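Issue: copy button drops trailing tokens. Both records pasted manually instead:
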Amino acid sequence: MVLVCQKDYIEDLVDIVINNEEESTRSVQTKLLALIQSWAFEFSYNRDLRGIAEVYMKLKDSGQDFPQPSEDDLKE
């Protein structure tokens, strides 16, 4: 999980999916955004995993639309 939540790694994945406008990748894009959001909520407290929260906030600030968070994402 540490590798997946590293800022550089997740930014590369986001770049690949976000910059691909093919209709066939829309479901992959939506799933990746949902995972980023979920991981950001879950791991933002962990210093080693904060990169995911940084990527999430960067995407939010740039106007990226995320799917509605699940109930599990909103639990503390």
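Record 2 (pasted manually too):
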Amino acid sequence: ITLEVEAEEPQGEQIAAVVTPKPASTGLGTPAKTLGSSSSSRLPSVQAGAEQPTDNAENSSAASNESAAPLVRYAAEFKGDDSRPKMAIVLIDDGTSNIGVEALTTFPYPLSFAVDTSWKGAKDAMAVYRAAGFEVLAMVDLPRGARATDVEVAMPVLLDTVPEAVGVMETPDAGLQENRDVSGQVAEYLANSGHGLLLFSKGLNTARKLAAKAGVPAATVFRDFDSKGQSASSIKRFLSHAALKAGSEGGVVMVGRLRGDTISALLLWGLQDRSDQLQLAPVSQLMNAQD
């Protein structure tokens, strides 16, 4: 299965980006990348012999420091500046997509991945993303009715499934914000573990305030942009709106999924020249930038 990108028509017709079961073709001067794998396994794989980004451990002195906090130790290399607003794109991987990591390695900007800790393939998927130079979050949830005391038991187990995560992202249903006690205990745990925290907006955003009080680097998702199966054109509009929001707030985090339309929209939107207005960055940069 390949990702084929066709050039935009002068009349302004919608750019077509489709997944088609035919030999790879190229568009916009970029080699088409394989979606999925020829094997029956869903697990994303890096093509043998393909040139891959240098491992973060070789690029970052912090990565070689065993005592560094995960948010620093496992952060992707980023050469940006503070003069322009930042946007981070986080894609959820829950094991249901057939899009392999090789389809994403030549993206024109950084991507980050939230790997579902309830998926039995989470650790293997994390290893593939990390080897390809991507930043990873552990997407975690707690059982309904969980108490603060359950956090101390559950968090080490959940984080062990994605051991090189820079931080924790809650599930889109705001699973870590069921009550103040749970949110406070999550913040306390992450303050000690050295992970960042990515939350969805909920109510008065009490969980975010508790994280800030505990000294946890945190950020709030600005928009979950494809949760209802939005088309590529809709996703591009959301991204353009978020870019404006980043300009007024200094940075935003956008969350999506590993879908054909989503990847097409991200690629085409990213090829637009906005380097003088916006920086696309790994999610750790947005966590570190927030109060």
